[in-house]
Write a structure and sequence with these properties.
Blueprint: H1 9-21, H2 24-31, H3 35-49, E1 54-56, E2 61-63, H4 65-90, E3 94-99, H5 108-118, E4 123-128, E5 143-146, E6 155-163, E7 165-170, E8 180-181, H6 183-186, E9 190-194, E10 212-216, H7 219-227, E11 233-236, H8 237-242, E12 248-253, E13 259-266, H9 274-287
Parallel strand pairs: 3-4, 3-5, 8-12, 9-10
Antiparallel strand pairs: 1-2, 5-13, 6-13, 7-11, 7-12
Helix pairs in contact: 1-2, 1-3, 1-4, 2-3, 5-9
Length: about 290
């Protein structure tokens, strides 16, 4: 077996303790082991890595050049391990809700406030991840708010509401003086689309009469392109609430189908608070249309 495969967190904790306390005896006190055990553990780490990590004198221990590099990595790995242990221990007392662009739109603040009042036992955190599943596939959240279709074989889901569509324009665009725009008019413009997480596709228009397209990869690039005036975007009302920008205005698209808002979660490993989140968000969309 390769010796490097025998590396354990205890080896790294020993190195960090020696450097932080300044010597073997104080490191032994901090770790709750004998000084001889500290010496053996450090020697084992140096043997595994094949480098000398510390300069030792009767008074102090200082890292070698290699030791400085290993120490930095050791601190990072130990912090990650501690974080992993904390997440495992507190997983059900924290609910991570992912989203790609705009969370719950105009309901975001109210959802957070009501959640704190009704579920003080479960900390709520919103996590932005620019992926089609809002971070669920990447493992960064427990459930996610999405506005596009997802793989029903992998995820359970619930439609919690619907949002009308708006066209995003440069503030000096001639359409900015209007209250609403029709889909048929938009096909005459260049449409900026986020193919990864956006809700707009050319399927909104007839196959033989669609707008020219320009592509971006996140909401900031999308807004920057629109602000130039060379293109427009179509988006749910949630974007209107969450992304107010100087130089950008939004006008209602009065004849477009609304966008379904879904909460999705892993089918075989749902967070215990999932259904409470679904119920609360559905109530907000129903009561505040």
């Amino acid at each position: 077996m390769d010796g490097k495969s025998d590396l354990e967190l205890r080896h790294l904790r020993c190195l960090v303790a020696i450097v932080d306390t300044g010597g073997f005896s104080d490191a032994a006190l901090e770790l709750g082991v004998s000084q001889a055990s500290v010496s053996r553990t450090l020697s084992a780490l140096e043997r595994i890595l094949g480098v000398r990590l510390l300069h030792r004198t009767s008074r102090v221990c200082t890292p070698t050049t290699a030791g400085v590099q290993v120490l930095a990595r050791a601190r990072h790995l130990l912090a990650e391990a501690d974080h992993l242990l904390h997440e495992a221990a507190t997983g059900h007392t924290r609910l991570l809700v992912g989203h790609a662009w705009s969370a719950m739109g105009r309901h975001t603040a109210e959802f957070q406030r009501l959640w704190r009042e009704r579920r003080p036992d479960v900390e709520l955190r919103l996590v932005r991840n620019n992926s089609p599943t809002g971070g669920l596939a990447e493992g960064t959240c427990d459930l996610a708010v999405v506005r596009t279709a997802v793989d029903a074989r992998r995820y359970d889901q619930a439609v919690v509401g619907h949002e009308p569509r708006y066209v995003a324009l440069a503030a000096d665009d001639p359409w900015a003086r209007r209250r609403s725009v029709r889909l048929a008019e938009i096909r005459e413009r260049t449409l900026v689309v986020d193919r990864r997480t956006g809700t707009t596709t050319v399927n909104l228009w007839p196959e033989d009469d669609r707008p020219a397209l320009e592509y971006t990869h996140d909401v900031d690039d999308w807004l920057a392109a629109i602000s130039t005036g060379r293109c427009v975007g179509v988006t749910p009302r949630s974007t209107v609430t969450q992304y107010r920008r100087d130089g950008i205005v939004y006008r209602r698209v009065r004849d477009a189908d609304p966008v379904a808002v879904r909460l999705i979660w892993r089918r075989h490993d749902p967070h215990p608070a999932t259904h409470a989140a679904v119920a609360l968000l559905a109530d907000l969309y129903r009561e505040r249309r």
